[in-house]
Amino acid sequence: MPLEVPESVLSAPILSQFSLEDKLCFVTGGAQGFGLEIVRAFAEAGADVCFTYLTTADDKATKTAQAIEQQTGRRILPICADVRKRADIAAAIEQAVQAFKHNGTTRHLDVVVANAGVCRQISSLDYDEETFDKDYAVNVYGVMWTAQAAGRIFQKQGHGNLIITVSVSSVLVNTPQPQTSYNSSKAAAAHMGKNLAVEWVDFARVNCVSPGYVATNMTMSQPEEIRSQWTAQVPARRMADPRELKGLYVFLASDASSYMTGANVIIDGAFSVP
């Protein structure tokens, strides 16, 4: 039965349904930005977490993992992996599953977050094959290869939960910056999530998260003039703190959202509403 939920889950007190106790989670792009907050949130909710990184230095990723372990008492494993390479991300997920064995028994992989993403601001008249492909390589192919590797495990074990970080750019056109490849790649990833939700309904849930402007290195590195235009367009008149996304990801990863699949949840301070 698609999306069948055990009675023990349905009858559990509501707060316990949000727990990720003893779950194994895997997050791509988890060394910085709100990817790091997703890792921290999952660990705070009781999960062991593996995260991938690529541009972060090895020692920094290791120290980040150790700090979260000390804060939460959960196991955190950083793995350097390139989501653009199908074999690379598949090997990273398998490495995580093997690393978290318990008494020789392989753990189930409960939650995978395809979070790694990139953004470039280029005029649509100036793209060439290489520059246009760069966003798609991470934002579309990277999501697909992460999903495929996770999906094969989910299908084999009979359950799983995939969360895809897209963007409010999946449903609107940001201004004033030109970013056609980013916006269209995020729209593709969001629609990919809907397709996977239907295709995998017998063994996994698939949902997307579409943040608006979040105060990360990516956004805060932009000129003040641009940032002020962005916040002026947001009814909340500010960007989100990355920590404000933690609750949504924990909800989607938990049993509290057991009937939720195929959704693209927008969290943007009403930016997309007017």
Low-confidence runs of at least 5 consecutive residues: none
Strand order of the largest sheet: 3-2-1-4-5-6-7
Could you describe the largest sheet, including whether it forms a barrel?
A: 7 strands, parallel
What share of the residues lie within helices? 40-55%
Number of strands: 7
What count of helical segments does DSSP give?
Answer: 10
| Straight-line N-to-C gap | 40 Å
Give the class-level CATH name. Answer: Alpha Beta
Within the CATH hierarchy, at the fold level, what is the topology?
A: Rossmann fold
- CATH architectural group: 3-Layer(aba) Sandwich
Derived structural class: alpha/beta
* Average pLDDT score: 94
| Assigned CATH superfamily | NAD(P)-binding Rossmann-like Domain
How large is the radius of gyration?
Answer: 18 Å
Briefly, what is this?
With 274 residues, the protein is of the alpha/beta class. The chain is built from ten helices and seven strands. The protein has one domain (15-263): NAD(P)-binding Rossmann-like Domain (Rossmann fold).
Q: What's the SSE blueprint?
A:
Layout: H1 7-10, H2 14-17, E1 24-27, H3 33-44, E2 48-53, H4 58-72, E3 76-80, H5 86-99, E4 111-114, H6 129-157, E5 161-165, H7 180-199, E6 205-211, H8 217-220, H9 224-233, H10 246-253, E7 264-267
Parallel strand pairs: 1-2, 1-4, 2-3, 4-5, 5-6, 6-7
Helix pairs in contact: 3-4, 3-10, 5-6, 6-7
Description:
The longest helix is centred in the middle third of the chain and has 29 residues. The chain is α/β, with parallel strands linked by helices and 274 residues long. The mean pLDDT is 94. It has a single domain, classed as Rossmann fold (3-Layer(aba) Sandwich). A seven-stranded parallel beta sheet has the order 3-2-1-4-5-6-7, sandwiched between helices. It has ten helices and seven strands.
